[in-house]
Design goal:
The protein is an alpha+beta fold. 42% of the residues lie in helices and 28% in strands. The chain contains five helices and four strands; from the N terminus they run αααββββαα. It is elongated and about 90 Å long. The termini are far apart. 16% of the residues are buried.
Length: 182
């Protein structure tokens, strides 16, 4: 008789345990999945701060992002800035806007961002202003809780993409002949 009583108690306990497990699974299934993309507003804020420092590097040789070694974009700015100054056309102001195209987390927790930077330049002597639009790859560290900072910035060489376009060879050859960029 004792065996039937145990069975009678254990069966409801087993059913309750199974229901509890099912309830936990259902609650977990309703919980939102962790975000696989960084907060775009926080990334954009870091890009804006970074770009403001780079803009100052166009006119101030002492300005720097403070990175242990200059980023590729900084080296490009310094080379072009110094060349323009040697040619008698120093930059008197540079104003940029950075547009975040996309940002994704990398395996190491950093963020890789595809960014389009538009910079308007003014020159000494009243030369007409000019503008440049350059695609960049930027790597950021930090997080949504603490904010982000740019640790690498590389201007993408657009000529590297010409070979990846799907234009047939003849169309590309003709475009090159008449000076169009395909």
């Amino acid at each position: 008789m004792m065996g039937k009583a145990r069975k009678g108690v254990l069966l409801p306990i087993g059913i309750l345990a199974a229901l509890a497990v099912i309830a936990v699974v259902l609650l977990l299934a309703r919980a939102p999945a962790p975000d696989t993309r960084p907060d775009a507003g926080l990334v954009q804020a870091a890009l804006d701060d970074h770009q403001a420092v780079l803009d100052s590097e166009w006119t101030d040789p002492e300005a720097s992002t403070g990175a242990p070694s200059p980023m590729a974009a900084e080296e490009t700015i310094r080379r072009v800035r110094d060349g323009l100054a040697q040619d008698g056309l120093p930059v008197t102001s540079a104003t940029s806007s950075a547009h975040l195209e996309r940002a994704t987390f990398q395996d190491d927790g950093s963020v890789l961002a595809a960014v389009t930077v538009t910079t308007t330049f003014a020159y000494k002597g009243g030369e007409p202003d000019s503008a440049a639009v350059d695609p960049h790859w930027m790597t950021l560290t930090g997080g949504d809780a603490t904010g982000y900072s740019v640790v690498q910035d590389e201007v993408i060489d657009e000529t590297a993409f010409k070979g990846t376009l799907d234009a047939p060879d003849e169309v590309q050859r003709r475009a090159d002949l008449i000076g169009l960029a395909i």
